[in-house]
Amino acid sequence: MAQDDGDELLRGERDRIDKVWLLKRLFEGYVRNYGALRCHRVGSGWADSTQNEISQFAQLGLMLGYVPTREHCEDREDHPRKTNQRDLCWLDVDNRRAGSRGRVFLHLERETEREKALDTVNNPNNKLLESASFADGRLLVGVFGWVTEKELAAIRKAVEDQVQYEKASTLLIAWVSAKKDVLPENYSIRGLVYTDRRWHERRAVAGLERGEEPGGSFWYLYFGADSRWGAQVP
């Protein structure tokens, strides 16, 4: 049997995937599995949460047959320079160019500092915007440990204004509150999927397990009874 050309095979596989559905499921899994990360209100810092979340996505990619790699750099003939390091990529090693480690199926960035969140989606020489410019069907995921409503609005506007995202499929996960390190009920966990110039949004709630700490111990997330996905056109 003749072997299909790698480019055509990969393009066909990605075209058949319902990317909106997949990105929605990624957010739903993030919410429903968050308690398993065992992020402690007192003992765990924001850096610990970052590492735990990235490890969770890496394990998921491995279980789906991809090869997760941290600090991945892409050196492409169609790009003027080697890219900056990515927080996490899922590599498809069955479909790759000669001499490459694998094609990027998913690229994830996790930012704890709110000052860096906008740069993640808006800097053409870095992070998700640079990745979107390759226009090869990869999935893009940005996870923001804490941003305000105003900052999230600016992030959404930046995505809407950049033409590179029009042909991409992007998931943004944001912990939104007026202040950092507040009580769980003051956080709104947003899942935002952007594709074909349309937003799909769902919200979750944060909580703390009761136990050895008076104010609660380990973080968990959940969907309220009325939480559903809704579509919005910018």
The domain tally reads 1
Listing every helix as H and every strand as E from the N terminus to the C terminus, the arrangement reads: HHHEEEHHEHEEEEE
Q: With helices defined by DSSP (H or I, 4 residues minimum), what is the helix count? A: 6
What is the mean predicted local confidence, pLDDT?
Answer: 86
Instruction: Note the overall shape.
Output: globular
Backbone structural class: alpha+beta
Protein model, in words:
The protein is an alpha+beta fold and 234 residues long. The chain has one domain. The chain contains 6 helices and 9 strands, in the order H-H-H-E-E-E-H-H-E-H-E-E-E-E-E. The chain has helices at 6-16, 19-33, 46-63, 114-122, 127-132, 149-161, and strands at residues 67-72, 86-92, 103-111, 139-147, 169-176, 188-195, 198-208, 219-222, 230-232. Strands 1, 2, 3, 4, 5, 6, 7, 8 and 9 form a 9-stranded mixed β-sheet that branches. Helix 4 (114-122) packs parallel to helix 6 (149-161). The radius of gyration is 18 Å and the shape is globular. The termini are far apart.
